[in-house]
């Protein structure tokens, strides 16, 4: 009985860890793409997933991103809202990456 309980607890913990790791997959993809396209490094980064508030879907995601970047030796606090991402099998596609309305202010 205690072995069964231990196995259930262990599986629950591993499942939770796996799901938590997956939650950061899309934001990391945004960060990588942003750095590559804009040729700038994101120093600090945070995100908010809006799906639970706006859309309930397993293939369509909406995020807000806040980040700090260095441009021309100055630090800027930037954000983009309503970044739309579509999941097709195991690939994530940014639907509106080229038309994002990035807002930055000098730190």
Could you walk me through the main structural features you see in this protein, from its secondary elements to its overall organization?
- By secondary structure, this protein is of the alpha+beta class.
- The chain is built from three helices and five strands, in the order ααβαββββ.
- Strands 1, 2, 3, 4 and 5 form a five-stranded antiparallel beta sheet that branches.
- A hairpin with a 2-residue loop joins strand 2 (60-71) and strand 3.
- The chain is elongated.
- 9% of the residues are buried.
- Residues 17-22 have low confidence and may be disordered.
List strands and helices in order, with pairings.
Elements: H1 2-23, H2 25-38, E1 42-49, H3 51-54, E2 60-71, E3 74-88, E4 91-94, E5 103-106
Antiparallel strand pairs: 1-2, 2-3, 3-4, 3-5
What brief labels describe this structure?
single chain, about 110 residues, alpha+beta, 5-stranded antiparallel sheet, 3 helices, 5 strands, elongated
Concise synopsis of the structure shown:
The chain is α+β, with helices and mostly antiparallel strands and 107 residues long.
Rg over alpha carbons: 18 Å
Strand content: 35-45%
| Sheet having the most strands | 5 strands, antiparallel
Q: What is the overall shape?
A: elongated
Average predicted local confidence, pLDDT: 83
Give the termini distance in whole angstroms.
58 Å
Kindly state the number of beta strands. 5
Q: Helix proportion of residues, in percent? A: 25-40%
Oligomer: single chain
| Poorly predicted runs | 17-22
User: Helix-strand pattern, N to C?
Assistant: HHEHEEEE
Q: What structural class do the secondary elements suggest? A: alpha+beta
Count of helix runs? 3
């Amino acid at each position: 009985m205690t072995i069964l309980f231990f196995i259930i607890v262990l599986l629950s913990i591993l499942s939770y860890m796996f799901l938590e790791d997956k939650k950061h997959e899309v934001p990391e993809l945004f960060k990588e793409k942003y750095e590559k396209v804009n040729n700038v490094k994101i120093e600090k980064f945070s995100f908010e997933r809006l799906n639970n508030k706006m859309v309930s879907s397993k293939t369509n995601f909406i995020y807000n991103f806040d980040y700090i970047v260095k441009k021309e030796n100055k630090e800027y606090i930037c954000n983009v809202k309503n970044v739309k991402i579509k999941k097709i099998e195991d690939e994530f596609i940014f639907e509106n990456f080229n038309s994002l309305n990035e807002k930055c202010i000098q730190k």
